[in-house]
Amino acid sequence: MDFAQLALYFYGTVLVASAVAVVTLRNPVRSALFLILAFFSAACVWITLEAEFLAIVLVLVYVGAVMVLFLFIVMMLDINLDRLREGFTRYLPIGFLVALVMVVEMILVFSTDEFSVEQFPRPDPHLSDYSNVRELGSLLYTTYVLPFELAALILLVAIIAAISLTHRRRSGTLHQNPADQVKVKSSDRLRVVKMAASPQVEQTEITHEEER
Fold first, then answer.
1. Domain range holding 155?
2. Measuring CA to CA, which of 83, 92, 101, 189 is 20 to 30 A from 49?
3. Residue 149 counted as domain residue
C-alpha cells in the first residue's frame, strides 16, 4: 500500500466521521463547521483521484461561499435549541431505519464484482500539459450536452418559481413601482413654497435689533 492509498483512506475516514457528526450534533453551528470539514475532505479525495478542478470548485463555492452564508444565517437567527431537541427522539427510529437500509444497499452494491479493483484499475499518470478543465468542458458540451442543458433549464425554472412564490404582495406594506420612479421629474420631488413670516418671529427680530 503506497502513500496515495493511505491518504485516500485517511481522507475518506475523516469525511465519513465529519458527515456523521453533522447529523448527530445538536448544535447547528458545530454541525455547519463539521459540514465544512466534510466538504474539504471530499475535495482532498478528488485531488487524490486527479480531479483537481472539481476539488477547487468544491472549496471555492461550497466551503468559501455557501457554508459561510449558512454560518452567518445560523448565528444571526434566534434558534430555539430546546424545540429542536424535542423532535430528535421522535424521529430517531425512522432515522435508524433509513440508515440501516442505506448500509445494506451499499453492502450489496460493493459486494459484487462490478466494483472490484480489477474492473476499475488506477489510470496511468497524465502528461504535464493535461488539463482537467479542457477535458471536462469537452465532455459537457459534446457527449453530455443534452443532460447539461436540461439541468440548466431545470435550475432556471426553479429560480423563477422561487421568485414567484416569494414575490407576493402583503397587506400593510409599502411597494415601489420602478417605472414611476424612472419617469419622475424634479418638480415632482421638490416644491418651493413662499410663506409669510410669523408675527412672533418678527417681534423676536425687532427685540434683537433693539438690544444691539
1. 129-163
2. 101
3. yes
The reply to whether the predicted model has a pTM over 0.85 is no
Nearest to 42 by CA among 72, 68, 8, 65: 8
Instruction: Retrieve residue 53's grid coordinates.
Output: 478542478
Residue 165 vs residues 70, 153, 160: alpha-carbon distances, Å: 22, 18, 9
Concatenated DSSP letters for 102-168? HHHHHHHHHTSGGGSTTTSPPPPPPPTT--HHHHHHHIIIIITHHHHHHHHHHHHHHHHHHHHHH--
Task: Tell me how crowded residue 181 is: count the other CB atoms within 10 A of its CB.
Answer: 8
Is 100 part of any domain?
no
Which residue reads 497524465 in cell numbers?
Answer: 126
Give the model confidence (pLDDT) of 13-65 as tens digits.
Answer: 999 999 888 888 877 778 888 888 888 889 888 888 878 888 888 888 888 88
Residue 65 in domain: no
- Give the integer Cα–Cα distance in Å for 22 and 200: 73
The answer as to whether 211 is a domain residue is no
Number of domains in the chain: 1
